[in-house]
Each structure stands twice: as C-alpha cells, then as structure tokens.
Amino acid sequence: MKIITSSKNRNKKGKSIILLIVVLLITAASFYGGYYYKSWVIQKKKKDAEEKRAQASVNAEIYITSNIKETTIILDGKDTGKTTPASINDLKPGVHTITLTHADTYPWKAEVELKEREFITVQAEMNEKD
Q: What 8-state DSSP symbol labels residue 39?
C-alpha cells in the first residue's frame, strides 16, 4: 500500500511549523523582556533608596518648644500642621524662618541656620496679649 500525500497537506504542516516557531519566539521574547524589565525596576528602586538615604543623611532637624502650648508652627512661610512642642525633620541645610502663632499671644519669629545633620532646639518665649 502506498500513501500519497498531497501538496496541500505539506503546506498545512509547513504553515503549522512556522506558526509554532513564531509562537515560541514571541513567548521567549516576552519572558526575556519581562525579566529585563523586572531587573531594571529592581535596580531603579535600589538607586532611589540609596539617593534617599544619602539625602536624609545630610538633612537637619529642629525641635521647637514654647512657654505657651499648642502654638502653631510656621516654617519658611508655610504652616507645618504641627503645634508646639514638635520636631520638624528632613530639613535642608541653610537659613530657615520659624514663626509661632497663638490666638492669645503676639506672633514670635526667629531665623535659624542649619548645617548638615544638625539637630537644634528652639525655645520660644511667647508674649501674651493684653
């Protein structure tokens, strides 16, 4: 018995093999691309964490107290959302303006110069309104 294959069947087999190769190449490329992307993300996160640690290591901190409790702390013209006594950290070195306000007192204002990694305490004497 002789089996005769037509060129139609050979074309189908050839197309199936080509399709299989294309699918395998796409799958391999997506795995490689996913691996590469994941590696890139991990390296980016490590670099960002190192930069954050380096930045935090040079920043300064201020601890602010006053003779009147619950005075609003304004730093460099912006309300910090904190009241005395409070610590404000992660400040860049340089000159900063501290303003304290309270309904029963006159505003208190001072400028402080911070150096890298410096921690200072500011004690404000608030004057009550007459």
A: H
Superfamily of domain 59-124: Immunoglobulins (2.60.40.10)
User: What distance in Å separates the CA atoms of residue 78 and residue 128, rounded to the nearest whole number?
Assistant: 23
Note down pLDDT in tens along the chain; length 130 residues: 455 555 555 566 677 788 888 888 777 777 666 666 667 777 888 888 887 776 666 788 999 999 998 999 999 999 999 999 999 988 989 999 999 999 999 999 999 999 988 899 999 999 998 7
* Structural domain boundaries in the chain: 8-58, 59-124
Alpha carbons 66 and 127: distance in angstroms, whole number = 10
pTM of the model: 0.57
Nearest to 86 by CA among 101, 69, 103: 69
Q: Residue 116: which residues within 8 A CB-CB, separation 6 or more?
A: 58, 59, 60, 93
Give per-residue burial for 58-75: e unless 16+ CB within 10 Å, then b.
eebebebebebeebbbbb
